[in-house]
C-alpha cells in the first residue's frame, strides 16, 4: 500500500498595519505602514520580517514587478485619489486595506515571487535606490545578505515588541 506523504502547506501571511504620519504638519508629510510578514515558504530568506514602507515605494515596486513579469498581470494598488471625500483616517485605512490586498495577491504569485526586488522591499529596510543597486549587484551585499543582515539586526522584532500595549 502507498504511504501518504504529508507535505506541509506553504503559508505566507502578510499584514499591512500601523499607519503612521511622518513629518506631520509639514509640506513633506507622508504616511508609512508596517509590513509584517510571516511564512514557512522556501521562497523567502527570512521567515519573519517587519519593515515600514510608504505608498510611493509600493508604486515603485508595482512598476518594477510589471516590468519583469512580462504578461503576468500585477495586482492593482489602491488609487492615489486626490479628491477623497471623508476623513484622512478613513482614507488611510482604505489605503492600508488596499495595500494589504495588493501584497497578499503578489506573494501568492510564483512569477512575482521570483523578483528579488520584492524580497528586498518586504524583508529589508533598504531604500528604493539601494534595492536597485543591490539587485544589479552594485551594493555592498547580495540580496540574501541584505535580508539576513536586516533579520539579524532585529529591527523587525523591536518594532513588533514596541507596538504591543
TrEMBL record:
* Organism annotation: Mesembrinibis cayennensis
User: What name goes with this protein?
Assistant: SNX11 protein
**Family of this protein:** Belongs to the sorting nexin family.
Gene name per UniProt: Snx11
PROSITE patterns for this protein: PX
Q: Which CDD domains match?
A: PX_SNX10 (cd06898)
InterPro entries per the UniProt record, alphabetical? PX_dom (IPR001683), PX_dom_sf (IPR036871), SNX10/11 (IPR043544)
What GO cellular component entries does it have?
endosome
The record's principal subcellular location, in a coarse class, is cytoplasm
Instruction: Quote the SMART domains the UniProt record gives.
Output: PX
